[in-house]
Write a structure and sequence with these properties.
Blueprint: H1 3-6, H2 9-17, H3 22-30, H4 39-48, H5 50-75, H6 84-101, H7 103-106
Helix pairs in contact: 2-3, 2-5, 4-5, 5-6
């Protein structure tokens, strides 16, 4: 059996883009299969297929938008005082995950100008 051809790439990438982590997407795919795919399959796919690797990176960039949308939705949410620490933690987690998945769009990197060198 050729696991490379058997792995449901489209379904996996769609799950990633929808907001699932790689582990969650893999578990979701494995729920419906007798033969289970392990974590090493993902590594091997990325090594053997630059196309899959590129498509996975694009799915992660889309997932970053899901994380960011979670932040936007939480801003208008009314919460009780005792819920503030938990909501702040969720906010920071989403912000971090969005920056990891799409650093060009969501990281808090500082852009240097010529004045910074003076």
């Amino acid at each position: 059996m050729n696991w490379f051809k058997e792995f449901p790439q489209e379904a996996f990438l769609s799950l990633i883009a929808s907001g699932l982590t790689e582990d969650e997407a893999l578990q979701n795919i494995n729920l419906e299969r007798k033969l289970k795919f392990g974590d090493t399959v993902l590594v091997q796919l990325q090594v053997k297929s630059s196309e899959f690797k590129d498509r996975l990176e694009e799915a992660k960039r889309q997932r970053a938008d899901v994380w960011f949308n979670g932040i936007a939705k939480s801003v208008n949410k009314v919460i009780e005082k005792e819920e503030v620490p938990a909501e702040m933690l969720k906010f920071e987690q989403r912000k971090y995950l969005a920056a990891i998945d799409n650093p060009d769009k969501y990281s808090e990197k500082k852009r240097l100008s010529y004045r910074d060198w003076e």
